[in-house]
Write a structure and sequence with these properties.
- The complex is a heterodimer.
- Helices cover 85% and strands 0% of the residues of chain A.
- Chain A has 8 helices and no strands.
- Helix content of chain B is 40%, strand content 24%.
- In chain B, α6 links the parallel β7 and β8.
- In chain B, α3 runs parallel beside α5, α4 packs across α5 and α5 packs parallel to α6.
- By secondary structure, chain B is an alpha/beta fold.
- The radius of gyration of chain B is 18 Å and the shape is globular.
- The chains are: A mainly alpha, B alpha/beta.
- Chains A and B meet through α4 of A and α2 and α3 of B.
């Protein structure tokens, strides 16, 4: 995004947060989006988180070969890596692909088929009606999905570790319960909130200003996912730097 | 009444509208005609605020649209109905939901009152009982008629139609044209139709504005158009073999 695009993005967000014409209609749209973003992504997030947790346990066990390090460390490292980095970031990148492309192509198609013009002619604030429910659903449901991902990833680590014999159940549980710092959850939720905003607003921007036809909608969709992923990684660094 | 004064609009170095003025009275079907690239759709979009003209003014019953702030524009837009070239129906909504949408947004009517209005509008465009169909299940002509039904749902004072006949067979085109004319006369709306369809011009053109290369070249009615001696208009009107043959017979 160059500065012009960034300026237009901010102005679009400003327009999206204008007072809604009718809250009841917006609320219905928000719940629909929460269903799409939250429930619709639950399966994918579950599978990815469980396997990542399992693989993480095996890799940590592979690297910790010293007899001086207790095996319960595997659980601790897995827990902190999962909470602080893997669950928020990997979930966000996966969601950027799944939800971001859907949002961008939905709004982009509405743009090229004049449906957005139709909204504006009716006197409806198109950014508000189309984008605000998605953003509000994103910033509420992505943190929920991240919490879900954390639980499943740590559970996946337990299953993977015990099935492979890399760590015993008792050692793993001892690891994940020792020296737990609840602040890591706060950091993860702040990240999830920021990522939720990026995952919904960047694709909405790309779709909203698309010009042309089907090809341009597809290009906007690809661009939306790429920019979202880069923004997620950049914000991941910034939030980590600020909060830890 | 809608009045436009000295409208100028450019896209980069390309000056599309070069100072167009005109008056559009209520109760008559006003047509803006011209060849492809003449600027008629751009003029329409300037009038409804989808494009911002660099110069000139658009007055809705004396209210200067181009100078209004967002909230004031929204108030005027609630009085506007628009039929888009591709109908622009909301894909995710049924016919009923499409027509009910502006009523849901801007009125406090009960569901039954809104449903009555939807059924009235559908009846008006001869689509009774198609409430639960989705746009993907409709033919091109039906989509246009649903578009008209949605446009008249809020009893608009101003009705805009962008190429209402594009992609339609001649018979359906006539149905759509007559529907637009009937609605205009029945509700005394200020109707502006952008078209390059000569059947529409001859059928419903009470007041016609001819654009060529971004300028107004001629203004008159469908009764006067055949007698004009403006070469650009003659080239446009008698471009088709059918019209040429009709002229030769005369």
């Amino acid at each position: 995004m160059n500065f012009t695009n960034f300026g237009r993005y901010i102005l679009l967000l400003k327009a999206a947060f204008r007072k809604p014409e009718k809250w009841s209609i917006y609320l219905k749209a928000i719940f629909q989006q929460m269903n799409f973003i939250g429930l619709g992504s639950l399966g994918l997030i579950s599978i990815i988180s469980t396997f990542i947790g399992a693989v993480m346990t095996l890799q940590i066990a592979f690297q910790l070969v010293s007899d001086f390090i207790p095996k319960s460390i595997i659980g601790s490292v897995n827990r902190d890596s999962t909470i602080l980095e893997l669950s928020p970031t990997i979930s966000a990148i996966v969601l950027a692909g799944k939800i971001g492309s859907a949002i961008s192509s939905e709004i982009g198609t509405m743009r090229v088929t004049e449906q957005i013009d139709a909204l504006e002619i009716m006197g409806i604030n198109a950014p508000g009606y189309l984008i605000l429910p998605k953003i509000l659903a994103g910033i509420t449901m992505v943190p929920v999905l991240v919490i879900f991902s954390m639980v499943l990833s740590i559970t996946g680590g337990y299953i993977g570790g015990t099935l492979s014999g890399a760590v015993t159940a008792a050692e793993y549980i001892q690891g994940i319960t020792t020296d737990f710092n609840p602040y890591t959850i706060t950091v993860a939720l702040v990240k999830a909130f920021v990522f939720g905003l990026i995952i919904t607003s960047v694709p909405a921007y790309e779709g909203f200003y698309v010009k042309g036809g089907a090809l341009e909608v597809a290009q906007a969709s690809t661009r939306a996912v790429v920019i979202s992923c880069i923004s997620i990684l950049a914000c991941d660094y910034i939030v980590t730097q600020l909060l830890l | 009444m809608i009045e436009i004064k000295d409208i100028h609009k450019s896209f980069g170095d390309n000056e599309v509208l070069k100072g167009i003025s005109g008056k559009f009275e209520p109760g008559v079907t006003n047509l803006i005609i011209g060849g492809s690239g003449s600027g008629k759709t751009t003029l329409l979009k300037c009038m409804i605020g989808l494009h911002h003209p660099e110069q000139g003014s658009v007055l809705y019953d004396g209210r200067e649209f181009t100078q209004l702030n967002t909230e004031e524009r929204i108030e005027i837009r609630k009085e506007i109905g628009m039929l888009f070239q591709g109908s622009a129906l909301f894909d995710s909504m049924t016919v009923e939901e499409n027509i009910m949408f502006p009523l849901n947004m801007f009125t406090d009517q009960t569901r039954n009152e809104k449903l009555d209005r939807v059924n009235f509008c559908l009846e008006r465009v001869n689509l009774e009982g198609r409430n639960k169909l989705f746009p993907a299940e409709l033919s091109g002509g039906m989509k246009k008629r649903v578009g008209i039904a949605r446009a008249i749902a809020m009893n608009p004072k101003y009705l805009f139609c962008d190429e209402p006949n594009s992609g339609l067979d001649p018979k359906t085109s006539i149905v759509i044209d007559e529907l637009i004319k009937e609605i205009t006369e029945e509700y005394n709306t200020t109707t502006i139709v952008v078209t390059h369809d000569m059947n529409s011009v001859m059928g419903i053109g009470d007041h016609i504005l001819f654009l060529h290369e971004g300028k107004k070249f001629w203004e008159g009615s469908n009764k006067e158009i055949a007698k004009t001696d403006v070469p650009e208009l003659n080239d446009f009107v008698f471009a088709s073999r059918f019209m040429k043959a009709a002229k030769d017979k005369l």
